[in-house]
What does this fold into?
Amino acid sequence: MPDAVDPDLDLEAVADALRVTISRLARKVRTEGGMQEFTPSQTAVVRMLSEIDGGATIAELARLENVRPQSMSATVGELADAGIVDRRPDPTDGRARLVFLTDSAQSAIRRARANKTGWFASAMRDRLSPAEQRTLAEAARLFDRLLAP
It folds into this structure.
């Protein structure tokens, strides 16, 4: 890993500019998704359930999010009231109930993701040169490296 710093580059200024721009970009992408806004807790649950095949118990979701089961139960209740999740008996444990995304929520999530990706690809195609598009492709790889443990 490189540990040298370009002496002509103010990394704090670059970091600040990227932080602001990435926040603005994230808001724009969320808007383009066309879905209702979720709280951060609700977003985490929806994201987890979209990646878990067969659903999860409240206890499992709470453990994955490092929150109390009571807090997770409240979040899941809000999502259930909105028709995003439903519950069914756990086939392996008759006392437990599994939380899962409804079919309509899964369809809405797929549409929202396609809308977000479509807007982003269209904006890059319409506003950036091929060289700039390649620069963003490289930037995506660099951001992945920054986020790696």
About this structure: Residues 12-147 form a domain with the Arc Repressor Mutant, subunit A fold (CATH 1.10.10.10). The beta strands are 85-90, 93-101.
